[in-house]
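Lecture notes, part 5. Sequence design as translation. It can be helpful to think of inverse folding as translation between two languages: the language of shapes and the language of residues. The source text, in structure tokens, appears below.
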């Protein structure tokens, strides 16, 4: 190797040494790449979310009837609010109390609904027929009295609202003649007519009650005709056990007074409206749904809820109802809650003079469930009664 070549190699080595020293001084020394982190252990699969409980409602009238069906649909909305995505609800409206009811209820069960509410008396036999064919479905029947292994019944003490309405009616009538537009002559409706009359007599012993039957739950033209007939017969305060606001509308048109029924009907006749006896189905529907979701639903029983359970109330009492009458209604309401007041405490006499409930005795639920007479003060005879 020549001296020139040796000098060139030494020069390159020196430059390399200087460059390495500079890199170390500037902190640029390359570090070895970190070892890859170990793969995490496979996590347990999250449990699958249970499918929502499918719930169906069969309605005898339209949702917009402003009364009975409207109240049930408010109950349906209450469970949607309470349980959210744990449930899915549906309904069929205007289901006749006939063979069509069986078809609709059977379809509901076939479509995977596991909790079915039939919301009128006439669905009792159809539901009893369908229930044994769908053992895994829970059937709830409103206002009925027949049960099965997977079918139970529920009702509201509507007569409590009727009695409180009567207290107001007795005070507000000037003719001492009250009128009732009645639907179908079953104990439920007869109880309401009698309770209304008993309430009215508690504030005005002179009152009498006239009744016109329309033989249907929702028939606005017939309800209007019946209300007109009662007004022409001297009634100046009307009560109803039908599902539409037709009676209140008729009273409004003819300058008389009337009550809302099942739901607050104030807007349908604000000048005529004295108060509305309402049903809140929400508490019972929430209870039944929770039991179904929790696996605690049991068939074969009956529930009958009223003011005490928050199922019955009287609302929107008119401003011109005297303060003392409003106070009496509140007293009755409080007594129904704490048990200190009984509507069916004797002596109660029917309109033929026969004592039906002895003095100081209190009629039990069995007696009320089969009630088929008019109390003293109600004109006429219960259709079909012996």
């Amino acid at each position: 190797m020549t001296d020139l070549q040796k000098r060139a190699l030494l020069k390159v080595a020196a430059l390399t040494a200087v460059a390495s020293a500079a890199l170390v001084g500037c902190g640029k020394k390359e570090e070895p790449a970190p070892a890859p982190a170990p793969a995490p252990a496979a996590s347990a699969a999250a449990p699958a979310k249970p499918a929502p409980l499918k719930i169906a409602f069969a309605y005898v009238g339209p949702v917009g009837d402003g009364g009975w069906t409207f109240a049930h649909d408010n109950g349906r909305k209450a469970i949607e609010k309470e349980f959210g995505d744990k449930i899915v609800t549906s309904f069929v409206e205007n289901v006749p109390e006939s063979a069509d009811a069986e078809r609709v209820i059977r379809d509901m069960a076939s479509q995977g609904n596991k909790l079915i509410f039939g919301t009128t008396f006439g669905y009792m036999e159809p539901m009893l027929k369908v229930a044994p064919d769908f053992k895994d479905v829970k059937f709830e029947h409103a206002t009925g009295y027949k049960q099965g292994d997977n079918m139970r019944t529920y009702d509201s003490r509507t007569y409590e609202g009727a009695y409180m309405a009567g207290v107001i009616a007795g005070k507000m009538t000037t003719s001492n003649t009250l009128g009732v537009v009645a639907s179908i002559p079953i104990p439920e409706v007869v109880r309401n007519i009698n309770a209304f009359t008993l309430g009215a007599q508690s504030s005005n012993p002179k009152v009498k009650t006239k009744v016109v039957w329309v033989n249907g739950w929702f028939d606005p033209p017939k309800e209007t005709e019946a209300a007109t007939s009662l007004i022409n017969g001297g009634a100046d305060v009307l009560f109803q056990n039908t599902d539409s606001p037709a009676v209140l509308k008729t009273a409004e048109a003819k300058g008389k007074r009337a009550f809302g029924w099942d739901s607050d009907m104030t807007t349908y006749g604000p000048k005529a409206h004295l108060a509305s006896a309402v049903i809140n189905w929400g508490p019972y529907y929430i209870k039944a749904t929770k039991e179904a979701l929790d696996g605690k639903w049991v068939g074969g029983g009956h529930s009958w809820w009223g003011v005490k359970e928050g199922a019955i109330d009287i609302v929107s009492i008119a401003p011109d109802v005297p303060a003392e009458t409003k106070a009496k209604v509140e007293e009755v309401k409080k007594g129904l809650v704490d048990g200190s007041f009984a509507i069916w405490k004797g002596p109660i006499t029917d309109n033929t003079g026969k004592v039906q409930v002895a003095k100081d005795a209190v009629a039990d639920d069995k007696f009320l469930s089969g009630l088929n007479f008019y109390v003293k003060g109600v004109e006429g005879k219960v259709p079909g009664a012996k």
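The translated text above is only one of many valid answers, since several sequences can fold into similar shapes. The longest helix spans residues 3-25.
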